[in-house]
Amino acid sequence: MVLFYSDYLEGCIPEILKELNDSNFCQTPGYGKDDFCEEARNLIKSRCASPDADVHFLVGGTQTNATVIASILRPHQGVVCAATGHIAVHETGAIEHSAHKVLTVPSVNGKLCADDLSKLMHLHYDQASPEHEVQPAMVYISYSTELGTLYSKKELQDIKAECCKWGMPLFIDGARLGYGLASKESDITIEELSALADVFYIGGTKQGALFGEAVVINNPALKKDFRYYIKQNGGLLAKGRLLGIQFKTLFTDDLYFKYAKHAVDLACKLSDAFKAKGYEMFAESSTNQIFPILPKAKASALAQQFGFEKWCDIDADHMAVRFCTSWATRTEDIDSLIANL
Question: pLDDT tens for residues 302-318?
Fold first, then answer.
């Protein structure tokens, strides 16, 4: 059985295992105050062209989203995201658990639109007594989205302009950032994305690390006391050097993007094969997630040899499913799946 359920099914890239083994008996300070973490921070700041950024390492994506959002919002405020946004549909109410409401707007191909954001803000502030409702105070988007789709540079610029108009920070969830930037459809670089985001994070868990996410805070107003929030949310890892070693390795020789391109290339190969055989797509993704619509009988047959996720029913006889490639996906497994179509 070959599994395409998600992009964190394997361990980590071999280079990380080697570095962890080679450094195993090094003695270092805890909680991210070691030389490995410092080197990783400097590599990330250099790659993002953000020399004044603060870089922090956390353990997982939900923890990172909850920590960043809680650090920004006051008790009466909420975070705006697309209706299909990860924090709205796939994090068990983690944001609400920290006493902040997720305010959703309609999504188009998994994306939040600047016009819909503007409508939401006017709907709130144009009423006589806006203080009776949760105040929208920051914007959350992900790159790539839950549907593997991408924001264009223009779309990101428009969202950022709307955020500036209303005095709200823009937070970009980068759990699959490398896969998004490696797409042929991407028209933005990590340097340009960093310049637009008040805060964003670089995903490691889904992109070749054993675990870990790197938060990059560009807005000076959001930097104060962030380590307190990390600790309060259980994210200040005692053996912080394990995170530093992993991100140091990922950002040496551009391994982060080389492995991401491998996953995206194989996903595109698989997507092209589905389309060539007449299957339609639920979402037009050019990243490492693809969403073909299959007859349920065909899905059942494929499931005998391949693991994939049911996404949603289309009608009585068809369903949309998700196949995920990763840094570790093998070409021969993609070829085997294509042969079984």
Answer: 999 999 999 999 999 99
